[in-house]
């Protein structure tokens, strides 16, 4: 590749959001684009998270693109390897390979006010300029590592769930798992039968519902291949059920009591020890933190080689792990199930806007973006899975496709404007949108349920979740309202300055 390329659109990341954006660009007739990926293959979080037991907690037929149905999903809730294979298939089917640039970790994206384009530098020394940037790095892409005294001096092996060391055999080892989130509850049942001892450090117990998973029969696959509308109907049914559930999360959290009873029964079936059951029972309303799905987590915790410590890890002294309540345990391996940088995404430090400040500085009082996509002061830049676009009970692919509708209309509006132009989200429009979202958030279970979750930023603001249905979001992002944007044109050249020509910028 040449050391400097100019494209109409640069997409950052090749997970669901990035590949979806690439497909949509091609469907809009736009082929002048690149997808910059820091790793050596597509897949995003489904490439990086390859830990034992990694699987999706959204049904397969809903956790896939509407424009790329897969009649051959092996299970109702598919595993990481099948989801990653699906994304590779999307890249091949839609002819995305020529647009992909692997091993291009973006180090800085800088807006050029004079030329009205983004200058994108990668760690490999290449530079790309682009009229529009679509940032699809995703909120679950950068592992969060805890700052625990002594952890750096631990003599054994330490790795994050998203950076699993497959070369290290855990058989017969004393393993400590830190955290009880979505990754940890999948890892624990997988490694428990093989390790000598497993210690789970639990700060807050999760609510765990039964996982209604099964193999999809050959007859079902044949039906979906032969009569594609049946797959569409299945997807529609899964979507509709989840849309009906939204009101309980966003307006009437008291209605979630029946769901709590199901979760308690799920625990009681597997955990007979009342003392352990008490430690595993949450004190907050179900749904406040992410609801987890597993049939194997509780049975694994009840095994004799597992110990649950109801306190976070406070200090590491050699191979001795000390909990906040003073409990000590010995370990050979530490697995960090400590989540990701969601409300403080590192990519925000690498985006420099029209006023010379980073996106992280612009968001110092909390992430906010107009319709979850564009930020004031950052013309022709948009994000996929941006602030307040997350979901608590349905498929993020639905939200991604809505944002791709918005992206497509954004590019159409730029075409209509003609010449060299950019669209900059008005500060007033971003503020008005964010105020509406935060006002609706006040009633939700995520804000009233009595917990602290990764949905909240350091100041307790919920800048992550969408407080409505996916249908509402689809309507809100169907088209771009130019009244919410300023049209930016190149500055007029001075008398002694030659005008910037199209050839000069390309």
**Runs with pLDDT <50, length 5+?**
497-506
Shape: globular
* CATH class descriptor name of the largest domain: Alpha Beta
- Compute the number of helices: 15
Give the biggest sheet: 8 strands, mixed
Calculate the mean pLDDT score and round it: 95
Distance between the termini: 15 Å
CATH architecture heading of the largest domain: 3-Layer(bba) Sandwich
Q: Which structural category fits the helices and strands?
A: alpha/beta
Tally the structural domains: 2
How helical, in percent, are the residues?
Answer: 25-40%
CATH superfamily of the largest domain: FAD/NAD(P)-binding domain
How many strands appear in the DSSP assignment?
20
CATH fold annotation of the largest domain: FAD/NAD(P)-binding domain
Tell me the radius of gyration. 24 Å
Percentage beta strand: 15-25%
Family: Belongs to the FAD-binding monooxygenase family.
Organism: Streptomyces clavifer
Protein name: Cation diffusion facilitator CzcD-associated flavoprotein CzcO
Keywords: FAD, Flavoprotein, Oxidoreductase
Description of the molecule:
With 506 residues, this protein is α/β, with parallel strands linked by helices. It folds into two domains: 4-141 and 341-505, FAD/NAD(P)-binding domain; 143-206 and 293-338, FAD/NAD(P)-binding domain, CATH 3.50.50.60. It is built from 15 helices and 20 strands. It has helices spanning 16-27, 45-48, 80-93, 184-191, 218-226, 228-250, 257-270, 274-280, 297-301, 359-362, 396-417, 427-441, 445-448, 470-476, 502-505; strands at residues 4-12, 33-36, 100-101, 106-112, 117-122, 127-135, 157-160, 174-178, 197-201, 208-209, 292-293, 306-309, 313-317, 320-323, 328-330, 333-336, 351-352, 381-383, 422-425, 485-488. The strands form five sheets. Strands 1, 2, 3, 4, 5, 6, 17 and 18 form an eight-stranded mixed beta sheet that branches. Helix 1 links the parallel strand 1 and strand 2 (33-36). Helix 11 packs parallel to helix 14. The longest helix has 23 residues, at 228-250. It is globular, with a radius of gyration of 24 Å. The model is unreliable at 497-506 (pLDDT under 50).
């Amino acid at each position: 590749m040449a050391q400097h390329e100019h494209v109409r659109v640069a997409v950052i990341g090749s997970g669901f959001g990035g590949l979806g954006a690439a497909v949509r660009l091609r469907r809009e007739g736009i082929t002048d684009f690149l997808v910059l990926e820091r790793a050596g293959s597509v897949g995003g979080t489904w490439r990086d998270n390859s830990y034992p037991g990694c699987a999706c907690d959204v049904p397969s037929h809903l956790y896939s693109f509407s424009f790329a149905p897969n009649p051959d999903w092996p299970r109702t809730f598919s595993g990481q390897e099948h989801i990653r294979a699906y994304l590779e298939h999307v890249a091949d089917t839609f002819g995305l390979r020529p647009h992909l640039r692997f091993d291009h970790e973006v180090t800085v994206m800088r807006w050029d006010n004079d030329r009205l384009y983004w200058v994108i530098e990668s760690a490999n020394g290449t530079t790309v300029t682009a009229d529009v940037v679509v940032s699809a790095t995703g909120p679950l892409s950068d592992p969060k590592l805890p700052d625990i005294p002594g952890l750096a001096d631990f003599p054994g092996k330490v790795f994050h769930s998203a950076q699993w060391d497959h070369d290290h055999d855990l058989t017969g080892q004393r393993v400590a798992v830190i955290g009880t989130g979505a990754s940890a509850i999948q890892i624990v049942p997988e490694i428990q039968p093989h390790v000598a001892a497993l210690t789970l450090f639990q700060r807050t117990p999760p609510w765990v519902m039964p996982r209604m998973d099964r193999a999809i029969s050959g007859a079902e696959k044949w039906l979906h291949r032969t009569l594609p509308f049946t797959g569409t109907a299945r997807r529609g049914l899964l979507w509709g059920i989840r849309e009906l559930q939204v009101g309980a999360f966003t307006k009437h959290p008291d209605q979630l009591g029946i769901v709590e009873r199901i979760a308690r029964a799920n625990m009681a079936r597997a955990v007979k020890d009342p003392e352990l059951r008490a430690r595993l029972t949450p004190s907050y309303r179900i749904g406040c933190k992410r609801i987890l799905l597993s049939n194997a987590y509780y049975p694994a915790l009840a095994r004799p080689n597992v110990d649950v410590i109801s306190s976070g890890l406070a200090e590491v002294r050699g191979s001795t792990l000390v909990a906040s309540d003073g409990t000590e345990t010995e370990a050979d391996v530490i697995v960090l199930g400590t989540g990701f940088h969601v409300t403080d995404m590192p990519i925000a430090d690498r985006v420099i806007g029209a006023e010379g400040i980073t996106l992280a500085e612009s968001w110092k009082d909390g992430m906010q973006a107009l319709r979850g996509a564009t930020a004031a002061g950052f013309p022709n830049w948009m994000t996929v899975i941006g602030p307040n676009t997350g979901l608590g009970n349905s498929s993020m692919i639905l939200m991604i496709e809505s944002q791709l509708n918005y992206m497509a209309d954004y590019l159409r509006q730029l075409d209509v404007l003609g010449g060299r132009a950019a669209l900059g989200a008005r500060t007033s429009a971003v503020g008005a949108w964010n105020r509406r979202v935060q006002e609706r958030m006040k009633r939700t279970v995520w804000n009233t349920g009595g917990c602290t979750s990764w949905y909240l930023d350091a100041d307790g603001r919920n800048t992550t979740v969408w407080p409505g249905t996916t249908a509402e979001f689809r309507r809100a992002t169907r088209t771009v309202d130019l009244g919410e944007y300023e049209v930016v044109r190149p500055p007029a050249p001075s008398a002694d300055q030659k005008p910037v020509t199209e050839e000069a910028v390309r």
